[in-house]
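@channel sequence for tomorrow's demo:
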Amino acid sequence: MLFKSKNDQSAIERAQKMYGAGINRGLAGFVDQGHKKKKQVTSTKHDEIVLTTTENIPEHNYRIIGMVFGTAVDQQQAVKVLREEAQKIGADVIVSMRFDSNNLTVTAYGTAVKLE
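structure tokens (generated this afternoon):
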């Protein structure tokens, strides 16, 4: 525990040692005011694969490559694995994407397609 209250001098000194002199004693605790990190957005190739729950992509024709599946312990990881599998087989889009789950895992699945 970093501090007991906003008036706890020993906690303030510990925080200053850890975070520097420019701390703010707000209700949420000590926040470094000097160096705010910028959130980095990283994109990988599989993040660019579009997911849709519909069969049709308006104004686009496509060729079906096959079914893809992603299984994990949570929904976000299952989608990540699904996109990775689609990338491996050269898909641009996954249509008819769905989820299925049981007590242990979540499976994301759909039809991988290549836009023409």
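heads up for whoever presents: DSSP finds two helices and six strands in the chain.
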